[in-house]
Every structure is written in structure tokens, then in C-alpha cells.
Amino acid sequence: MLLAPPLGLLILLFLKEEQKFLIRAVSLVSAGITLGLAIFTFVTYDKALGGLQFVEKYEWVKTFGITYFVGVEGLNAPLLLLTGIVIFTGVLTMWELQERVKEYFIWMLALVTGVFGVFMSYDMFFFFLFYEIAVVPMYILILVWGSTRKEYAAMKLTLYLMAGSGLIIPGILLLYSTSGLYTFNMLQLHAAHFSPWIQKVAFIMLFFGFGVLAAVWPFHTWSPVGHVAAPTAVSMLHAGVLMKLGSFAILRVAMFLCPEGFQYWAQLMALLATTGIVYGVFVGLAQTDLKYVIGYSSVSHMGIVCLGLATGTVDGLNGSVFQMFAHGIMTALFFSSVGYIYDRTHTRDIHELGGFSKIMPVASAFFITAALCGAGVPGMASFWAELLVFIATFKVFPVQALLAIAALVVGALFALRVVQNSFFNAPNPKFVHFEDVSPFLGLPRMILIGALFLFGFFPQFMVSMIKTSVVPFLQGM
Amino acid sequence: MGSLDCPFLVCLLIVALPLLSFAVIMIFTVNRPKLSLAISLTCSTIPMLLAWGLFYLLRATTMAKPLITQVNWLVSDTVVVPFGFLLDPVSLLMVALVATISWLIQIYSIGYMGGDPGFARYYADLSLFAMSMLSLVISSGMLQLFVSWELVGLSSYLLIGFWYEKFSASEAGKKAFVVTRFGDIGFFMGLVFLTYFMKDINFFGLGIADINGVAIASKLTGPQITLCALLIFCGVCGKSAQFPIHVWLPDAMEGPTPVSALLHSATMVAAGVYLLTRIFPFFAASATAMSVVLVIATITLLLSSTIGMVARDIKQVWAYSTVSQLGFMAMGLAAAALGGGTMFAGYYHLTTHAAFKALLFLCAGVFIHHFGTNDFFVMSKDGGRKLAIPMVTVVIGALALSGIFPFSGFFSKEAILGQLWHLDNKLWVALGLFGAFLTAYYTFRVIFVLLFPRPDDHPVWGTYYVREAGGHGHASPGHEEAHEEEAHGASGHTTGHGHEEHHGVPWVMSFPLLVLAGFTLVLGFLQAPLEKFLLGESHPHEMNYLLLILAVGAALSGIGLAWLDWGAKNATWQGFIKKTPALENFFIQKWYMDHFWRWFLNTFIYGMFSKWFTYNDRRVVDGGVDAVAFSTIGSGRLLSFIQTAFLQYNLLFMVLVLAGVGIYLLMGR
Amino acid sequence: MLLFNQLQTYLYLALVLFAIGLYGVLARRNLIAVLISVELILNAASINFMAFNRFLAPHPAVGQVITLFIMAVAAAEAAIALSIIIAVYRKLKSVNIEQATELRG
Q1: For chain A, which has fewer Cβ within 10 Å, the N-terminal or C-terminal residue?
Q2: B396-428: b or e for each residue (b if 16 or more CB lie within 10 Å)?
Q3: How high is the ipTM of this complex?
Q4: How far is C23 from chain B (nearest CA, A)?
């Protein structure tokens, strides 16, 4: 699975810029293979057996204990599926791209390689390597193909994430050097018991370092700006998948290796997460740019993810990973439909738009579905995730849970305000002549909606999968 | 119990068919009205038949022991969400009722919505509503109920905002969703607390039967139950439009009238009261909670009746009447809990009300459809009384609403007043009677205006319009606008087949009226069998003649007063309330509740938190980040002054450093 | 003991050459002169190699090989440096090092 995007990338390198169709086809096929493999792993993963499956392991640099070690378990399988879906739909969404097509798809596939690598690596060195591979193409993608203050946004995003990396490297090296094992293998490091002091220091460094990417309050300001500037599919990948890297890394590295550090800082995590949830919806309420609105809703939803992590209970982690998945699909859908509308109208101001249900019923239906999902309407995946997180949180941090639940009202207000302003009311005569989404371009959005509903009606598929590794994970702590 | 047996499959079918219809219409046939209609009708007829079949077959068995079948929907660690069906008399009757009413509405809508561009979408939304409401009624666990509860809210949002081009409609939809969401959050918190408490006694999954059993066996402490009950009651308040979050319901009349009939009178708003009856033992275990319910319900009853007295939009009148009747039901239930009675009275009023209020709305729909206006004064002027069937049925409905023998409302109201009578404090029964009086008054205000139109040059029109022009605040301009737009929205389809307008009422619209009128007439006499069915035994119905006389007296005096004000030959068409203008204005402004919420939203949500947080985000958080970036650039600039660009200085420096290092190494030896 | 048969003599020679070269690199303002001084430094290094090779190394050929290497590298370096100097001259119409201050902060 890790190989498909780089292979496609290699083929793309040899194609000419003029062969646009071929370029797209190659990217689509490699994304399709990725998706197929992700589904395959998700379905064939043996839940009864649990643990790591589909393992690949090669020694790389023996002296430093670096191993190429990838595998799939219940925690990352949903995220692999998510990435597969988002990249596939992302390629389809950008089908209409005309400018520098080849470079665009090359960078996008590079990004995805990094993302897959992070999700699957069990070696800290490779984990970090892939992490950087995933982050760097973002700069170029936003800078070249972006809009609205793209230089500023790209620079801000990159510097922010680099600053995060500046905390991550010392954290990783601290763990590496104090373990005395001379290995980057996370499973082995897990067995080494670090002294509480080391754990506390390393955890907080890793938490803030990865937290930047997960848009933990108050390190979130890069994300709305970045979303706004990025081209559609990049926003999809960015909000849908990349932000999950941060939260997943907190779970996989920080919590896994420093359980005592986690317990020490859990209060702080919950506090920041709740602040993010409440803060995100209120700030989103005041925005007028569609993408800013979505950006702040992401801040809020990622807060729910972190809140789930902070509980450190089975329910909380289940909910948290589920929410990563659900939010990824949901934001991808959001950006995908906004992108379609923006490509036509060249505006995202919610006061200028209006009555789009009349002009583009299908495109609007996609957006409205996403908005309702964001407002936590049942029948869609994120409802269950939020339910699990809130119930779990209540047992550990009752006050934070009640605040977060109360924020749901504002969340609903905020989602519906956008929907009403831009999709209902009388149509703006400026835009009446635009055509609706064609069935082909509607396909990726349908896939996303299908995923939302599938796991909305049958949450057990997802939860039973996540649970296979959450339970041993917590026992290990 | 077998995990998947026959009733389970039937229930599943009842719930799944409308959902299927929703999905199919939305995805495939949204541009083909005829086909969509066929799908939707099929998918509502079968559940209705199945529901009655269940009712018939299981009525004997479930009386002894409720039938629960469930499977696990979601199993996390301590959170278990079962999916299943609870069949007992309460749910069996309700599911049959809901299925029937939604089937009737679908039939009616063929006429009402015919030719509308969103016809297929309309039926899809109706199907979604049917699915969620049916699932709500027969769900076996609180969490499943909550899921359906939210879906009901969603479909109501979609249906209220159905004519989304209208600002008022989309605004009303948003308001309805957010306001009910406000209550639902309370509900959800209640459930969260409940899971937390139940965990201690090993009850996962929050089965309805379980929590009732727990409450009866008092395994939870009193404060725990009170807390949960009050929080869950927040949800009831939202959905059943109780004070102070009733404000969404009158605005919800922006939706198509059949929707108002289906959702906002008969079924959806009744969900709240239904929930009260569903976990009645649980609520009854907390006297404190029930006292709060009683107070809130009474406030609701009086508030909405008084507003109903001054409203001019026929749908607004029925909407406020719905709010008041819901308050009345909740009063009945609360009183029953406090006075040791049963939930029968409230539930009975719920069923009768469902029938006659749906009837009233559908009649209103016929008038609106016919005359293209919501203002019943204009309807009256345009000859509303010439439509025979709706006119007769609206009178039947009105009589039932006012509680006049032998219509169904009489029996159910009397049952509730009986419960109130049992309370020690007689204030409540007095207030209940006063509410009945007001109800009769505003109901017959509409009826008399419709029945006895004044000629165009009659002086009352003059005073009427003068009063209008005199302007009573901000409400009326908005009101007028709403009328116009409603007329506009309706004209979208009336123009489509205008030829029908003068050929009376199409049969698809009058048929449901007749059926519902039949229900209204019959249900009253089924009190004893129903009670036996629901409770297992029929209490000997001791007739409280004093109360009976009082109740009928209240209703009749209300009608009498309405006759003096609106009906009689020399009536002035000015309510008695006109004599105290301050009070009238207060009512017209809807007790200023809308203003209050708007102020609250603007000041606190938008004005305070949103603004402050945004400012903080721009200036403090983001500003801090930018400051770090700029200071980095600045410091780089400072350091760059050292760089003289004179090559040989650099070289000299290098040599000196190297020499220094060399000396250091040598000395180190 | 003959003067030219001693290691120290060559080391001093190399030191003197290196010092002259270093002085030239640091003090001359003419780029050509700087280049010549660099060559002097390289030669100093070569002499060192040859001297150590003659007196101390077990294998007699290593130092010579490296010296040959240095000559080749010096030739290449001189070519590149001259071309840079010519480029600088074309741009600034001067080979004075004080003129080349575009990188001033």
C-alpha cells in the first residue's frame, strides 16, 4: 500500500505536461490502488486475532537501531481507510485542474506517501521522516496552486509546523538516548520504562510538537488560514488527513511511550481541548468566508478528538479515533463542495452567495449534508464519535464534558447560519447561470457521503475495529 | 427472548421502508415527481398496515408483558447502544396513530403540493420524518430514542425550510433546529448523567424498561433522579414547545401546511409528551421534577392561549393552540405523578389532540390553498364558509378543541382536569379551567369570523385596518410580509393548476379531513376500552359532576364570549382584550419572548463570546504568532549589520578562530 | 648534518611560504594577488607532504601522489578562480576586492 503512490509518482515524472489526461489517469489509478488496498486491509484485518498485522520489517541502519517497520492494527486501519478515500476523491475532485497538472499530482502523491508512512510506521525514525515528507509538499502545493494570501498562509503553515518539529526532534531524541536500548523501534521503546521526570518532559514536548499539526488551541491559527489558501483537494487532504497525523502521533508516540507523562498532563490536554471546542464554534460564528468557517469548525472538532484522547479510557479513545475518521470524511466533503462552488463563482463570502440550493441543488446538498454532520446529526458517523467522547469525558472531566456538550448548540447555530446564508434564500442573480455538478464530478462527493452514512448507521464496524487495539493499548499503559 | 423474531422484523420493516424511500428519492428520482410519489406512498402505506396489524395481533399479549427485542448497535467499553423495539400498549397505539396520520398527510399533500417544483424532495423529507418518528415511538432504549429524536428535529428543519428561497422560511427552520437543539442538549446531558449513574448499578444501554424499573425500585437516589428527569425534561420542552423555548413552533408555520399538521401538531411536537409518558414511572419518582414540569406547563398553557387570542394568521392561532394543549397534557401528566394518578389522562389527550389538531390544520390548509392567504379575516371576506366539507370539519375540530360533548376533546380534557382536581392545591385546577376557557374563546373567534363574514363596506373593516395602520409594534409588518410571501410560495403551485381552484376541494384533500373528523367523533367514546388496554385495568370512572359542570361551563362561557365579540350581529370584531391595550400589546408581542431570545443571542452569543473570541484570535493568538515571526526577521536584520561584505575580514576571522582552536587543542594536551 | 638533509629545514620553508601566502590572502586588495597567495599556501602544503614523505613515511610514494593531486587541483582551482575574477571584472570593471561588497547587510 505504501508503494502505490510513489510508483504513480515515478511514472508521472516521466510524463509530459501536455499529456494531461494520462497524468490524471495515472494518479487516479495509483490513488485507486491505494484505496483498494486500504479497504482490503480494513476488511480482511482479523479482529479476533487483534494486534499488529500485515507487518513488514527490514533492518536499515543497524548502528542506530533504525528499522523499516510498518504494520496495521485497529488504531491505524480506520485512518488508512480515511486516507485512501480522501486521496481518491481528492484526485477526482481536481480533475478540472489545468495549470501545472503534472507537478501538482506529483506533490500530492508525495504528500500521501508521507501520510501513509506516518500511520503505518512503528519506528520513530521513519515515523518522523514520513511526518516531514507529509508536511513539506504542503508548502509548495499552497504556494503554487493556492488563492487568497497564499504566500502568507504557506509560509505561516510551514514555519508553524517546523516549529512543532523543533519540539518533536528533541523529544524523540530524549526518549532514544535515555532508553539505553539504541533502537527507534517503538514497541521496544515502550518496554523500556522511562523515569517519570523524563516522561513528563518528553510528553509535553511531543504533545505540543504534534499538537501544532492537530490544531490544538492555541496553536490553531495556521489551520484556517492554510485551509483558505489551499486549493480544493489540498484543503481536503490537509484538514481531512493531515490534521489527523498530529492527533494520531500524540496517541501513537506521546501517549504510547510516556504513559505517566500523559497522566500528569491529561488535565492540561482536556483543558486545551475544551477551550478549542468552545472557542472554535464561537469564532466560526463570526466568520464570513466559507472556508474560514470550515476551518474553525475543524478546530472545534479536533478539540473533540483531543478531549477523547485526554480521557485515556477505552470509550474515549474509541470515540477519538472514530472522530478522526468521521471528521476527515466530513471536512473532505465540505471542502470538496465549497471548492466546486468557488471554482465557478470565485467568491466564498457567505453574504454574497445565496440561494445555491436553487442554482446547484446537488452541490448544495453535499454541503448541507456535511454541515449537518458537523452539527452532530445522528445517522452520520460523527454523531457516534461525539457520543462516545462525551460520555467518556464526563466520567473523567465532568465540567469540561458539559461545556463541550453545551458548545453543540452554538455548533448547530453556526452550521445552519452558513447553510441558510449561502444556500437558502433568494438566489443571487449573478450566479444563476452556473451549472450543477455533473455526475462524474459528483462521484467523489457521493463516495464521501456514502462513507459517512455507512458508518453512521453501522458504527459497530468501526468501533469494533478500533477497539481491538485500544484495549491492549490501554492495558499497556 | 430470541434476538431476531417476527415482531422485530416487522418493526424493522416499518422503520426501514420510509428510510429506503427517502434514500431512493433523494438519490435517484428527485426529478421525477410521479415516481417519487408512488415510492413514498407505497413506503408509507405498508408500514401503516403493518402497524395496525401489530396492534391487532399483539394487543392481548403485550398487555401482560411488554415485548422487547433488541440487538447491539454499538458496543464500546462502557457505552452500549442497543437497537431494538419495545412493544407495549403505549407504543403500539402510538405507532399505529403516527403511521396513519402520516399516511393521511401524504395523501392530502398530493393535492396541496401538486405542481410544486420540490414535490419529490417534499415526499423524501416526509418519508424521513415518518421513519424517524416511527423509530422514536417504538425504540427500546433511550439512546436510540435520542437518535430518532434528533432525526425528527432534522426532518422538521428540512420541512419547515422547505420553501428555502423565502428568508422567513429558512430563518424559521434554523430557529426551530437551534432552539430544539438547545433543549436536546439538556436531554443529552441528562442521558450522560444517567449512563454515569446507571453504570454504578450495572445497567448499561439505558433500556426504557430498565430505567423505569430502576426508578420504581428506587435504586438511584432522589437527587440523581431529579437531576436526570429535569435535564431530560429540557428535551421535552424543546420538542413539545414548552415555555420558555416554545418560540420556534409558531415560526415553524412557515412550512407547507400539511407539514404543520403532521409535525407541528399531531406527531412531532407530541414526541415530547410521548417521552413523558414513556418514562412516566421514572419522572414520577421525582416529585420535585414533576412540580417544575407542572409550573412550566401551566405557564405555557396560559401564555400561548393568550397569544392565540390576538393572532391573525389562522395557522398561528392553531400553532399557539397546539402549544397550549401540549402544556395541558404536560400538566395532566405532572398532576398525575404528583397526585398518584396514572399517565392515562395525558396520553389520552395526546391521541385525541393528534386527531383533531391535524384536522384543524388540514382544514386551514384547504382554506390557505384556496384563498392564497393565511389571514382568516381575509378568508372570511373572500367567502370561506362556502367550502362545505372543510367548514363542517373545522367546526367539528373546534368543538373538540374547546372540549364540548360529545367530541373527543371533551373526554380527554375532562380526564386531565380530573387529575388536576386531585391535587391539594386547587389553584392548578382553576388555572386549567381558565386555560380551557381561553381555548374555547380563541378557537371560536376563528370559527365565528369565518362563519359570519361582514360585507366589504361594513364599519368593522375600517376600524380593523385603522388598528392595523396604527401599528402595534414591530410584529405586524413582519407578519404581513410573511403572509405575502406565504401567498407567494403557495402561488408557485396554485398557478400550476389554477383551474382546480374554483372546482371546490379535490378529493385527496377532503378525504383525510373526513377520516380525521371520524376519529374525532369516535375516539371520545373509546375512553374506557383504551384505558383498559393501556393500563391493564379500567378504573371505575367516578363522575365528578362538579368538575364536569365547571369544565363545560368554562368552555361554553368561552364560546359565549367569542360570540359576543365576534359572532353576534352587532359584534364589534374587537376582542374584549382590546379594552386593556397594554395587555393586548403584550400578547401581540408574544410576551416579548422572541425579543428576549433575539436580545440574548445578539448580546451574548454574537456580541460577546463570538466577538471577543474572534478579536482574541486575530490579535492575541495570531498576533502573537506574527509577532514572533516579525521579531525573528528583525533580529536577523540587526545581526546583518555585522556583515560588512569585506571578504578579507571574513577570512581573517576564520584564521583567527582556527588559530584559537589550534592553541586550545595544544594547550589541552 | 647537512642543512638540506633535515626535516626542520623544509618545515620552516613551508611555514614561511604559508605565512607569506596567508598575509597575501588577508592583506592584498587585488584579486589576482589573492589568487597567487592561495597558490603559495597550496605549495606550502605540498612541500610539507614531500618533506614528511622523504623523512618519515614508510612508503615513499604516498606523499608524491598527494602532491601531484594538489597540483592538479590547484590548476583546476586556478582556472575556476580566474573565471570568477573575470566575471567580477566584467561586472565591476575592477579586480579590487574592496569594490565587491554587494553582500553587505
Answers
A1: C
A2: bbbbbbbbbeebbbbbbbbbbbbbbbebeeeeb
A3: 0.84
A4: 10
Whether B77 contacts A462, CB under 8 Å: no
Instruction: Tell me chain C's radius of gyration from C-alpha atoms.
Output: 17
Q: Closest by alpha carbon to B442, among B581, B565, B263, B586? A: B565
CA nearest to A393 within chain B? B192
Distance from CA of B600 to the nearest CA of C (A): 57
Q: Give B91-111 pLDDT, tens digit per residue.
A: 888 888 888 888 888 888 887
The pLDDT-based confidence of C17 (bands split at 50, 70, 90) is very high
Instruction: Report pLDDT for B104.
Output: 84
- pLDDT tens per residue across span C68-87: 999 999 999 999 999 999 99
pLDDT at position A419 is 80
Q: What is the pLDDT of residues A413-431, one digit of tens each?
A: 878 878 877 777 677 777 7
Cα dihedral angle (B520, B523, B524, B525), rounded to 10 degrees?
130
CA-based nearest residue to A174, from A221, A248, A139, A124: A124
Give pLDDT, residue A401. 84
How far is Cα B413 from Cα B353, in angstroms, rounded to an integer?
10
Cβ distance of C102 and B645 shorter than 8 Å: yes
Residue A230 near residue A238, CB atoms below 8 Å = yes
Of B245, B429, B203, the residue nearest B334 (C-alpha): B429
Count the Cβ atoms, other than its own, within 10 Å of residue B256: 28
Whether C104 sits inside 8 A of B645 (CB atoms) is yes
C33 touches B: beta carbon within 8 Å: no
Residue from B15, B24, B77, B177 whose CB has the most chain A CBs within 10 Å, to mutate: B77
Measure the CA–CA gap between B273 and B266, rounded to whole angstroms: 11
Nearest by CB to A377, from B72, B150, B193: name it. Answer: B150
Q: What rounded mean pLDDT belongs to chain B?
A: 75
Which of B251, B617, B628, B631 is best to mutate for the A interface (most A CBs within 10 A)? Answer: B617
Q: Which residues from B are below 8 Å from C84, CB to CB?
A: none
Closest C-alpha to B178, from A281, A172, A294: A281
* Share in percent of chain A as helix, strand, coil (round to 5): 75, 5, 20
Residues of chain B with pLDDT under 50: 1-3, 462-503
On chain A, the residues whose CB falls within 8 A of the CB of B611 are 286
Grid coordinates representing A376 are 452532530
Query: CA angle C15-C16-C21, nearest 5°?
Result: 95
pLDDT band per the 50, 70, 90 thresholds, residue A352:
confident
Q: Do chains B and C touch (3 or more CB pairs under 8 A)?
A: yes
Q: The cell 495570531 sits on which residue?
A: B622
The CA distance from B177 to A101, in Å, is 43
pLDDT at position A15, please? 59
pLDDT at B338: 80
> Residue A282: closest CA among chain B residues belongs to which residue?
B610
Burial of B456 (0-12, 13-18, 19+ CB in 10 A): exposed
The cell numbers describing B32, all together, are: 421525477
Q: Under a CB-based contact definition with an 8 Å cutoff, are residues B147 and B158 in contact?
A: no
Residue of B nearest to C98 (CA): B646
Rounded to whole angstroms, how far apart are CA atoms B160 and B260?
A: 8
Strand partners, B68: B86
Query: How far apart are the CA of B185 and the nearest CA of chain A, in angstroms?
Result: 7
- Asked if B17 and B43 count as a contact pair (C-beta separation under 8 A), the reply is yes
| Å between A90 CA and nearest CA of chain B | 22
Q: Give A 269-298 residues with CB within 8 A of chain B.
A: 279, 282-283, 285-287
